[in-house]
Design a protein that fits this description.
Structural class: alpha/beta
Strand order of the largest sheet: 2-1-3-4-5-6-9
Order of helices and strands: HHHHHHEHEHEHEHHEEHHEEE
Largest sheet: 7 strands, parallel
Helix content: 40-55%
Number of strands: 9
Mean pLDDT: 77
Distance between the termini: 22 Å
Low-confidence stretches: 1-21, 89-94, 316-321, 326-360
C-alpha cells in the first residue's frame, strides 16, 4: 500500500507551473491561489490513498498482490533470455496450414488484420521478456506478425528513445509492406510510443497504440531518483507540457489500460489519458499490479478483439465492442449523424456496422 505521508512529501515537491500574466496570474500566485493548489494536492493524496486501500483490502486485491509477487520472481528468471536479439520467426499469415481454429478464423475473416504487424515496447530497465505471455496469446489468436523491440536499459531520455523507435517502425513498415502497424507499450514503453505518435509524426504509421500502466500524467515515485529520465516522468515536467500541446488531426487511436493496484503510478489515475485531440478508450483493470498487466489473459483477449475489429478510420466494426472517443465531430459529421435513423447502428465504408460514439470514454474490465 502506498505511504500517504511519503506521497504528500513528493507532492509538495512538485514544481508549480509559471503563473499566467495579468490579474489571473496575480490571483494564482497570491496566498489564495497557493492555498487552493495545496488543497488540490491534498485531495489528490487522499483520493489516491483511498483508492489504494479499497483495492488492496479485498480478496481480489490480495490475490493480485500474490500474482504480482510470483510474476516478478518468474520474470527475473527469464529476464536474461530477453536480452538476446529476437529471432525472425514470422509465419506466412496467408496460409492456413498448421493454424489452430482460432487462428484460422481471424485469417479467413480479415486477412489484413491478421497480417498487420504488432510491435511490443517494454518499460524502464526491462526487456522484451515481459511480453512472453502476451505475445504468445496474440499469436494464438491469429496475429502472425507480433514483434518486440529492446531499447537500452540505461536510456535517459524519452525523446531520444522515441526517435529510435521511429527508425525501427520505418524498417518494419518497409519489411512487412504494411503502411500502418499497431504498437503495444508497457509502462515507459507506452509513453515513448505516445511521444513518437504525437510529436514525431508517428500517427502516420501507428494505427492503434495500446498502453498498459503508462504514466500519461507523470508519477510521484519519479521524485525518488535524480536521473534525467525520472525528471521527465515527474508530473508537470517539460515533457508532459509538450505532450499536452494540441495534436490536431492525430490519426492514431489509443487504448489505455490502468490499474487501481499499480504500485508504480501514483496517483493511479495518472495512467489514464486525457487529451482533447486524441481518440482514446480508458479501461480500468481492477486488482492487477504493474508488472502483472502484460500477463493478464483478459487483456490479451481484449487487445485481440480490439485489433481485429477496428476499421482503418479507427471506429469499431462490431456492436458490443466499446467504441473509441474521438475529438468532437465536424458540422458535416454532425449533420450526417442527425440523418441516421434513431436506434440503428451506422455502417462503415465496408458496409459493416459501426457503433455510435460513446458518451463516456472510460469503463472497467
Amino acid at each position: 500500500m502506498a505511504d500517504p505521508s511519503g506521497t504528500a512529501r513528493a507532492l509538495s515537491a512538485v514544481p508549480a507551473r509559471p503563473p499566467a500574466s495579468g490579474p489571473v496570474g496575480r490571483l494564482l500566485s497570491g496566498p489564495r491561489g497557493r492555498a487552493a493548489a495545496a488543497a488540490r494536492r491534498t485531495r489528490s493524496v487522499a483520493d489516491g490513498a483511498a483508492l489504494t486501500a479499497r483495492s488492496v483490502l479485498t480478496p481480489a486485491g490480495l490475490a493480485g498482490i500474490a500474482v504480482e509477487a510470483a510474476w516478478c520472481a518468474a520474470h527475473l528468471a527469464v529476464y536474461p533470455l530477453g536480452v538476446l536479439g529476437e529471432r525472425n520467426a514470422e509465419r506466412n499469415t496467408y496460409g492456413l496450414e498448421g493454424l489452430a481454429p482460432m487462428q484460422r478464423g481471424l485469417v479467413i475473416g480479415d486477412v489484413e488484420a491478421a497480417g498487420t504487424p504488432i510491435l511490443l515496447v517494454h518499460g524502464m530497465v526491462d526487456n522484451r521478456s515481459i511480453f512472453t505471455v502476451l505475445r504468445r496469446g496474440l499469436r494464438r489468436r491469429g496475429f502472425g506478425r507480433v514483434l518486440s523491440t529492446n531499447y537500452s536499459p540505461a536510456t535517459n531520455d524519452v525523446r531520444t528513445t522515441a526517435a529510435d523507435l521511429a527508425a525501427q517502425v520505418e524498417v518494419l513498415v518497409a519489411e512487412s509492406g504494411y503502411e500502418r502497424i499497431h504498437v503495444v507499450g508497457h509502462s515507459l514503453g507506452g509513453l515513448i510510443a505516445r511521444y513518437y505518435v504525437q510529436r514525431l509524426g508517428g500517427d502516420e504509421r501507428v494505427h492503434t497504440l495500446v498502453t498498459m500502466g503508462t504514466p500519461h500524467a507523470g508519477t510521484l515515485p519519479a521524485y525518488l531518483w535524480p536521473a534525467e529520465l525520472c525528471r521527465q516522468l515527474r508530473p508537470g515536467s517539460d515533457l508532459y507540457a509538450e505532450l499536452e500541446q494540441p495534436a490536431p488531426g492525430c490519426r492514431t487511436r489509443f487504448i489505455v489500460y490502468w490499474s487501481d493496484l499499480d504500485q508504480m503510478i501514483v496517483p493511479k489515475r495518472n495512467a489514464r489519458l486525457d487529451h482533447p485531440d486524441i481518440a482514446r478508450r480508458n479501461i480500468l483493470v481492477r486488482s492487477v499490479g504493474h508488472m502483472s498487466l502484460p500477463i493478464q489473459p483478459r487483456l490479451a483477449r481484449e487487445i485481440s478483439d480490439a485489433l481485429s475489429q477496428l476499421h482503418a478510420d479507427g471506429s469499431t466494426m462490431t456492436q458490443g465492442v466499446t467504441p473509441l472517443v474521438a475529438a468532437p465531430p465536424t458540422s458535416r459529421a454532425r449533420k450526417r449523424s442527425r440523418t441516421a435513423p434513431p436506434g440503428r447502428a451506422r455502417t462503415g465504408p465496408t458496409g459493416k456496422s459501426v457503433d455510435r460514439p460513446a458518451a463516456s470514454h472510460e469503463r472497467d474490465l
